[in-house]
Design a protein that fits this description.
Radius of gyration: 17 Å
CATH architecture: 3-Layer(aba) Sandwich
Distance between the termini: 58 Å
Oligomer: single chain
Structural class: alpha+beta
Number of domains: 1
Helix content: 40-55%
Strand order of the largest sheet: 1-2-3-4
Largest sheet: 4 strands, mixed
CATH superfamily: VSR Endonuclease
Number of helices: 6
Number of strands: 4
Protein backbone atom coordinates (compact mmCIF):
# COMPACT_ATOMS: atom_id res chain seq x y z
CA UNK A 1 0.00 0.00 0.00
CA UNK A 2 1.35 3.44 -0.96
CA UNK A 3 1.60 5.91 1.87
CA UNK A 4 0.27 9.35 0.99
CA UNK A 5 2.43 12.17 2.25
CA UNK A 6 0.51 14.59 4.41
CA UNK A 7 1.50 18.22 4.03
CA UNK A 8 1.56 20.54 7.00
CA UNK A 9 0.22 23.97 6.12
CA UNK A 10 2.31 26.63 7.79
CA UNK A 11 1.05 29.66 5.90
CA UNK A 12 4.20 30.08 3.81
CA UNK A 13 2.43 28.94 0.67
CA UNK A 14 -1.14 28.92 -0.55
CA UNK A 15 -3.02 25.64 -0.73
CA UNK A 16 -2.53 24.51 -4.32
CA UNK A 17 -5.49 23.80 -6.54
CA UNK A 18 -3.81 20.67 -7.86
CA UNK A 19 -2.14 17.96 -5.73
CA UNK A 20 0.58 17.51 -8.38
CA UNK A 21 1.52 21.17 -7.88
CA UNK A 22 1.89 20.51 -4.17
CA UNK A 23 4.25 17.58 -4.81
CA UNK A 24 6.35 19.62 -7.24
CA UNK A 25 6.60 22.65 -4.96
CA UNK A 26 7.55 20.56 -1.92
CA UNK A 27 10.40 18.93 -3.85
CA UNK A 28 12.14 22.24 -4.62
CA UNK A 29 15.43 22.57 -2.78
CA UNK A 30 16.93 25.70 -1.22
CA UNK A 31 20.53 24.45 -1.21
CA UNK A 32 22.60 22.41 -3.64
CA UNK A 33 20.28 23.20 -6.52
CA UNK A 34 21.21 22.03 -10.01
CA UNK A 35 22.56 25.48 -11.06
CA UNK A 36 24.71 25.58 -7.90
CA UNK A 37 26.06 22.09 -8.54
CA UNK A 38 26.72 22.87 -12.20
CA UNK A 39 28.63 26.04 -11.28
CA UNK A 40 30.66 24.36 -8.55
CA UNK A 41 31.59 21.52 -10.91
CA UNK A 42 32.70 24.09 -13.52
CA UNK A 43 34.75 25.97 -10.91
CA UNK A 44 36.48 22.74 -9.92
CA UNK A 45 37.08 21.83 -13.58
CA UNK A 46 38.66 25.28 -14.13
CA UNK A 47 40.96 24.77 -11.14
CA UNK A 48 39.17 27.32 -8.96
CA UNK A 49 39.17 25.95 -5.44
CA UNK A 50 39.32 27.32 -1.92
CA UNK A 51 35.68 28.23 -1.67
CA UNK A 52 33.14 27.37 0.99
CA UNK A 53 29.48 26.60 0.40
CA UNK A 54 26.58 28.02 2.41
CA UNK A 55 29.06 29.60 4.82
CA UNK A 56 27.33 30.76 7.98
CA UNK A 57 30.26 32.92 9.15
CA UNK A 58 29.07 35.80 6.98
CA UNK A 59 25.61 37.40 6.73
CA UNK A 60 23.13 35.77 4.37
CA UNK A 61 24.84 32.33 4.08
CA UNK A 62 25.88 32.88 0.44
CA UNK A 63 25.83 29.86 -1.88
CA UNK A 64 29.56 30.09 -2.60
CA UNK A 65 32.12 32.06 -0.59
CA UNK A 66 35.78 32.79 -1.21
CA UNK A 67 36.84 33.87 2.31
CA UNK A 68 40.38 34.82 1.27
CA UNK A 69 39.02 37.28 -1.30
CA UNK A 70 35.97 38.32 0.70
CA UNK A 71 33.73 37.42 -2.23
CA UNK A 72 30.21 36.07 -1.70
CA UNK A 73 28.35 34.53 -4.64
CA UNK A 74 24.61 34.04 -4.74
CA UNK A 75 23.13 31.63 -7.28
CA UNK A 76 19.57 32.82 -7.78
CA UNK A 77 16.77 30.77 -9.27
CA UNK A 78 15.07 32.80 -11.98
CA UNK A 79 11.52 32.07 -10.80
CA UNK A 80 12.05 32.68 -7.07
CA UNK A 81 14.20 35.79 -7.31
CA UNK A 82 12.55 37.30 -10.44
CA UNK A 83 15.36 37.23 -12.96
CA UNK A 84 15.81 40.47 -14.89
CA UNK A 85 17.27 38.57 -17.87
CA UNK A 86 14.70 35.86 -18.67
CA UNK A 87 11.75 37.56 -16.94
CA UNK A 88 9.86 34.40 -15.87
CA UNK A 89 6.06 34.46 -16.03
CA UNK A 90 4.02 35.01 -12.90
CA UNK A 91 1.98 32.11 -11.51
CA UNK A 92 -1.61 32.05 -12.74
CA UNK A 93 -3.23 31.29 -9.37
CA UNK A 94 -2.90 32.99 -5.97
CA UNK A 95 -1.35 36.03 -7.65
CA UNK A 96 -1.50 38.31 -4.59
CA UNK A 97 0.37 35.75 -2.51
CA UNK A 98 3.10 35.37 -5.12
CA UNK A 99 3.55 39.11 -5.60
CA UNK A 100 4.12 39.48 -1.83
CA UNK A 101 6.40 36.42 -1.76
CA UNK A 102 8.58 37.62 -4.63
CA UNK A 103 8.75 41.14 -3.18
CA UNK A 104 10.00 39.72 0.15
CA UNK A 105 12.60 37.60 -1.65
CA UNK A 106 13.93 40.60 -3.59
CA UNK A 107 14.07 42.77 -0.45
CA UNK A 108 15.86 39.99 1.44
CA UNK A 109 18.40 39.65 -1.39
CA UNK A 110 19.15 43.40 -1.30
CA UNK A 111 19.45 43.31 2.50
CA UNK A 112 21.97 40.43 2.35
CA UNK A 113 24.08 42.35 -0.17
CA UNK A 114 24.01 45.48 2.02
CA UNK A 115 25.01 43.48 5.11
CA UNK A 116 27.97 41.99 3.28
CA UNK A 117 29.01 45.38 1.86
CA UNK A 118 28.99 46.84 5.40
CA UNK A 119 31.66 44.35 6.47
CA UNK A 120 33.75 44.96 3.35
CA UNK A 121 32.69 41.99 1.25
CA UNK A 122 32.02 42.01 -2.49
CA UNK A 123 29.02 40.14 -3.85
CA UNK A 124 28.21 38.58 -7.19
CA UNK A 125 24.77 37.37 -8.19
CA UNK A 126 24.60 34.72 -10.89
CA UNK A 127 21.27 33.71 -12.33
CA UNK A 128 20.05 30.21 -13.10
CA UNK A 129 19.53 31.06 -16.78
CA UNK A 130 23.06 32.48 -17.10
CA UNK A 131 24.59 29.34 -15.61
CA UNK A 132 22.42 27.04 -17.72
CA UNK A 133 22.98 28.98 -20.97
CA UNK A 134 26.71 29.65 -20.60
CA UNK A 135 28.31 28.30 -17.45
CA UNK A 136 31.82 29.23 -18.60
CA UNK A 137 30.78 32.88 -18.76
CA UNK A 138 29.70 32.65 -15.11
CA UNK A 139 33.06 31.05 -14.23
CA UNK A 140 34.83 33.88 -16.08
CA UNK A 141 32.91 36.48 -14.04
CA UNK A 142 34.14 34.79 -10.87
CA UNK A 143 37.70 34.63 -12.23
CA UNK A 144 37.55 38.36 -12.96
CA UNK A 145 36.38 39.13 -9.44
CA UNK A 146 39.14 36.93 -8.01
CA UNK A 147 41.63 38.43 -10.49
CA UNK A 148 42.56 34.97 -11.79
CA UNK A 149 43.75 34.64 -15.38
Amino acid sequence: MTKIKEYIRDGRAPIPVNEATSRIMSSIKAKNTSPELKLRKALWYNGIKGYRIHWKKVPGSPDIVFPRYQLAIFVHGCFWHRCPFCNPPMPKTHLEFWIRKFDKNIKRDKFKNKQLAKIGWKTLTLWECQINNNCQSSVNKIKNRLKIK
